[in-house]
Amino acid sequence: MIPTDVGCPVQLTPREINYPSMAAQVEMRNTYSVSFTRTVTNVGRANSTYVASIKGDLSKLRISVEPNILHFVVFCMQVVSLA
């Protein structure tokens, strides 16, 4: 049986939703800082390592991901990442 009346009990901004992608609307003439926090769960093999990558035109942006390397030692291990 699939419920038809589903709702989220917590109000989240789009930035707080734990999606793998991130986007922010900003004005190009202003300096700004935007942070995204993500909880990452290892659904792959134990002892897995993942390296963050940033794609796109970075000539006008400074982007960092912390930590930039995630190392999981067990299945379903979780790590909080800040970008």
From TrEMBL:
Record protein name field: Subtilisin-like protease fibronectin type-III domain-containing protein
Pfam (any one): fn3_6
Lineage: Eukaryota, Viridiplantae, Streptophyta, Embryophyta, Tracheophyta
Span of domain Subtilisin-like protease fibronectin type-III: 17-72
Organism: Tagetes erecta
Gene3D superfamilies (alphabetical): 2.60.40.2310
